[in-house]
Amino acid sequence: MNNPLQAKAKSIGITDSPELIDLEKPEQGLELHLGSNVFRNTNGVIKLQGKEQVVLELQPDPFTLLLTMDFYDDQGTRVGHIRRNALSAHSAARFTVTVKVGDETSPPSVAVTDRTTERTVFEACLIQKRKIRITVGHFNAHTGELVTVSPHYCRIGTGLTLFGNVAESRGGAATIG
After folding, report:
1. For residue 83, what are the β-bridge partners?
2. Distance of CA 94 to CAs 61, 65, 87, 100, 117, Å?
């Protein structure tokens, strides 16, 4: 049989070892849930209207959800900054950060409350190994437009509402607007 189109079978040597080689897969990016929207394989950054405004990270020891975020007023002036759950000096009078360290029975979470309105302006929790749900959002983007996150949608101002979208971020930021 000298058929040039026929593939030749190659034999591969098999070792005598009964053990299988277990190659550990690298960690995938974070999956962010904003309302009913899912952003897969992100780097934890949420970019709102072209500017990186929110960063979420997981810290293994102690098991904590870390938040870095800028807060703006309705004119687009920065009024607060949180870096890895620590408020900047000028933000401490206006905002309160509540951090819940995770354990075997409960996941980690982080919440930010505006002291002037006593309203939770941002809240996020881990729902599975690399999945984070933003459960509450009521803050302004750098343009001054109100960003609202509810269990059902994510809205920026009056012009953009996301509902039930699934986006692949390919290791980059979750981009909205």
Report:
1. 86
2. 29, 21, 10, 20, 9
Q: Are strands 64-72 and 78-83 parallel, antiparallel or unpaired?
A: antiparallel
DSSP per-residue string spanning 41-55:
EE-SEEEETTEEEEE
Mean pLDDT value across residues 32-61? 96
Average per-residue pLDDT for the chain? 88
Domain coordinates in residue numbering, the chain: 30-165
Q: What 3-state class would DSSP assign to 37?
A: strand
pLDDT per residue as tens digits for the range 49-76:
999 999 999 999 999 999 999 999 999 9
Alpha-carbon torsion, ordered 43, 127, 125, 131, to 10 deg: 10
Give the global pTM: 0.82
